[in-house]
Every structure is written in structure tokens, then in C-alpha cells.
Amino acid sequence: MTARDGKSHFAARPGEAEAWVRTADPAVSKRAADGDFTARLTIDITPELRGRIKVVAFRRGITVADMLRALFAREFPDSDGGAP
């Protein structure tokens, strides 16, 4: 067997936030080629909030993912990097 140096090299700390965020993710989704989305975001929410989100999406006749993408697009519009 080969010896390990004991240090973990899992991830490096980003130098500049904007450059780090815009760096391509090596684990790009399969759907990225279709232009649907290029990154996955995971958040922890309560089961109650998840249920409310699903009900609202169902009533609107859209998927939860599509509804949340639209919400994020409204809340975080493209900008020049300045303050809102």
C-alpha cells in the first residue's frame, strides 16, 4: 500500500469570492448541455416548509424546481457586482 501524508486536500480556500463563484464546477449536471441549469444547490428546510412549497408549486401547475429558479432569479438578478 502507498503511504498518505495525513493532510486532507479536499478543497482549497478561495482567494476572491467572485472568481471562485464563477469557476466551472467539475461535476456539472447532465442537463447542463440542454441549458436548463449548470449547478445544483442543496439547502436544509423543515418538512413543513417543504410541504408548503410543494403545495404552492402544485397549485401553480409548475415544478418546485422551476418555481424556485424563478424566485431566485427575481431575488438575485444579474448585476455588475455592485451593491443592490
Overview of this structure, please?
- The structure is a single chain.
- This protein is mainly α.
- It has a domain at 43-78.
- Helix content is 38%, strand content 0%.
- It has helices at 17-22, 47-60, 64-75.
Write out key terms for the chains shown.
single chain, 84 residues, 3 helices, 0% strand
Q: Count every beta strand, where a strand is a DSSP E run of 2 or more residues.
A: 0
Into which percent range does the helicity of residues fall? 25-40%
Contiguous helical run count = 3
* Mean pLDDT score: 76
Q: State which percent range the strand residues make up.
A: under 5%
Unreliable residue runs: none
Topology order in helix (H) and strand (E) letters: HHH
Largest sheet: none
Radius of gyration: 18 Å
Structural class given helices, strands, pairing? mainly alpha
User: Could you tell me how far the N terminus lies from the C terminus, measured between alpha carbons in angstroms?
Assistant: 54 Å
Q: What's the overall geometry?
A: extended
Topology:
Blueprint: H1 17-22, H2 47-60, H3 64-75
In short:
This protein is mostly helical and 84 residues long.
